[in-house]
Amino acid sequence: MIPFVVKRALAAVAALAFATFSVATCAFAQDYPKRPITMIVPFAAGGTSDVIARAVAEQMGIALGQTIVIENVAGAGGSTALARASRAEPDGYTIAIGNAGTNAATYTIYPKLPFTPDSFVPIAMVAKTFGIIALRKDFPAKDLKEFIAYAKANPGKINLGHAGVGSSNYLICKSFITAAGIDATLVGYRGAAPALTDAVGSQIDGVCDAAASVSQSINEKLVKGLVVGSTVRLATLPDLPTSAEAGLPEFEAQGWNGLFAPKGTPPAVIAKLNAAARTAVETEAVKKRFADLSTVAPDDNEHAPELLQQLVTRDVEKYRKMLADDAKQ
C-alpha cells in the first residue's frame, strides 16, 4: 500500500500540474491569435463552401485582429481536407469549414477514414443553404414534370454533376433522384465550380448545387433552374419553383455550413473563434453577401457549438440510412 503521506504528496503534485496547465492554457488563450489562421475549405475555389468561407473568414479576421487565410484542399468529397484538418496542431491556427456531407455522410460513404466525428471540436454554424437542381440551357425539358418524364423514358442516360461523393451537393443529388424515383448517373468533380462549368458548356445534363454558387449562372441564363428544395421561393431566384410547387414535396435540400477545429483545441480558443464567427455573420457585409447568394445566417439561438454538434450527430445517423447502398459498393 502507498503510505498516506506519499498519497498526499502525489495529490499535491497532480494539483500543481493541473493548475500550471490551466494557467498556461488561459495565458495562451488570452494571447490568441498572434499570427494568421488557416481555414481549410474541402473543395475547389468558387463552390458554395468556398464562397461562404471567404465571406465569413474576412469578417472573422477583422474581429480577431488577424488574417484568416483560405486553403482549398479538394478531393474525395471533402475527406482529404478533413484528414489534413484532423492532423493539425490543436492550437486554433488551423480550422475547417464543413457541411453535412463532409462531416456526417462521409463516415458512411468512406468507412475507413483516418478520422471520426470525435476528431473535431465544433466552433459554430455559420450558414444555412438551399439545394437546387439546374440543367444545361439546351436540355429538352422545360419544367420538373417534363424532366422526370424524360428521365424515366431514358433510365441512366441523364448525368448530373456534383462536388464529389460525400459532398453536400452529392446529398442533394441523392435526395432528388430518390424523391423523383428516377435512374440518373451522378458524376463527381473536385468541387461544385468545375461541375457547374461543365453544365454551362453542356458537357453534362445538369448539376445538383447550392443556391450560393449556382444562382448567378441561372440568372444569367447560362443554365436553367429546375427546382429548389426549399419551402419558400428564394429572393434571388423568384421564378424558380419550390419542390412542393413543382409537384415533388418529398425533395428537401436545406443544409448547413459550420466551422470545426481539431480535437484538443482549448475551450477558451473555441470560445474566441465562436464569438468571432457570430460577429462575422451579423455584419452587414456578410448579410449582404449571403442575401446575394440566397444563403441564410444562423438565428440568434443557433450559434452555440453544442447546436452544431447536434446537427452532426443527427446527420451522421440520417445519412447512414440514406446511403447504406453506397457503403456496400
From TrEMBL:
<comment type="similarity">
    <text>Belongs to the UPF0065 (bug) family.</text>
</comment>
<protein>
    <recommendedName>
        <fullName>Tripartite tricarboxylate transporter substrate binding protein BugD</fullName>
    </recommendedName>
</protein>
<feature type="signal peptide">
    <location>
        <begin position="1"/>
        <end position="29"/>
    </location>
</feature>
<keyword id="KW-0732">Signal</keyword>
<dbReference type="InterPro" id="IPR005064">
    <property type="entry name" value="BUG"/>
</dbReference>
<dbReference type="Pfam" id="PF03401">
    <property type="entry name" value="TctC"/>
</dbReference>
<dbReference type="InterPro" id="IPR042100">
    <property type="entry name" value="Bug_dom1"/>
</dbReference>
